[in-house]
Amino acid sequence: MFSPGISDNLENLMNFGGVDAGNPDLANAKFVVIPVPYDLTSTYQAGSRKGPAAILDASCNMELYDEELRVETYLSGIHTMSSLEVDARGPEAMAGVIREEVARVLSSDRIPVLLGGEHSITIGAVQAMKERYPSISVLQLDAHADMRDSYQNTPFSHASAGRRIFEMCPLVQAGVRSMSLQEARFIEENMIRTYSPDFITDDSDPVKKICANLSEDVYVTVDLDVLDPSIMPATGTPEPGGILWNDLIHLIRGVSENCTIRGFDIVELCPIPGMVAPDFTAARLAYRIMGYINRIDS
User: Fold this and answer.
1) What is the CATH T-level fold of the domain 10-297, as seen in this structure?
2) Neighbour count for residue 190 (Cβ, 10 Å)
3) Using one digit for the tens of pLDDT, what is the confidence trace for 120-137?
4) How far apart are alpha carbons 116 and 223 in whole angstroms?
5) Strand 78-80 relative to strand 193-195: parallel, antiparallel, unpaired?
6) What is the pTM of this model?
7) Positive or negative, the Cα torsion across 61, 63, 64, 66?
8) N or C: the chain end with fewer CB closer than 10 Å?
């Protein structure tokens, strides 16, 4: 059963939210959803290439009234693009495709929302962000540090996303609970702000401390494995001990209140057949972040 206001016209179902007027042209939208079905460098469980379609499908069954914000965020305009075509030459070439597409969205003063796909897609997005907003910083919400300089012979692996971002701009990581010895040493030597789930849940004011290390302009990348696998089992590399929904939402809301979120992505959903709760969680997360951005801009 679709939510009130959501069309049962099949041609609208792969627009984010599935609303009748939910896919305005680029000129009339505030948010531009970019599906990126790419998982070439996945190393444990592949399948995140199916993530964007699962998120879009789940979004068609959301209530479009946000009970926390008390608004219908979609009225600000959400344009959903066709899925980006995969570049078979490899992850570096794919980063270039993403960079070009995100740059096009930014040039029209819209907010890009990338749906992955694996975490390597963030590299191209941040490249475009850095060109548009030279003072951009990145908040990486992730179970993994992703600080390997190269993995399986490519520096554009999903396991290297954090490292490539750090080379471009200030980086703050939160929710991290898995890394190699080499990554741990690199983080320590370069004084990268990397916070564990315990910091987020136990510190008296984690939002203030995290925001203190971010710039005014921020890009947020959410690897869904930052969440505990008890509520987000559908990821390629799940890690026990993650944060829960309310902690994640509280953190992102705090960032939106203290910084300007210029774009974001949600990556590493690896759908499990017959289990739709993780897909729906990812869709609600995307919609809620749009709502936070819209509320601050209003």
Assistant:
1) Arginase; Chain A (3.40.800)
2) 11
3) 999 999 999 999 999 999
4) 9
5) unpaired
6) 0.93
7) negative
8) N
